[in-house]
Amino acid sequence: MIMTKWFGRPDLAMAIYAILMLCKLLIMITVPVNDQLGGDEYDYVGKARFLVEHRTFREIAPYRTSRDRAQGYSDFRPPGYSLFVSAFLDIDDTNAHLRRNINLAQFLLDLATTSIVLLLAYRFCHVPGYRMVAAGILGIQPWTSAFIISIYPDTMTTFLTMIGLLGLSWFVVSLNHARQAAALIGGSVFLSLTFLVRPEMILLVPVLVLVALVLARQRLTLRSFTAFGLLAAMPILAVLGMNMAYRWQVAHEVRIFGKFQAATPGLMLWTKTWIGRQELKEELIFGGLSRVDRNRFASLPDQVFTDDTERRELTRIVDAVKKRGHLTAEEDQDFMAIARNRIAADPMTYYVWTRLYN
Question: What is the per-residue pLDDT for 128?
Answer without folding.
Answer: 67
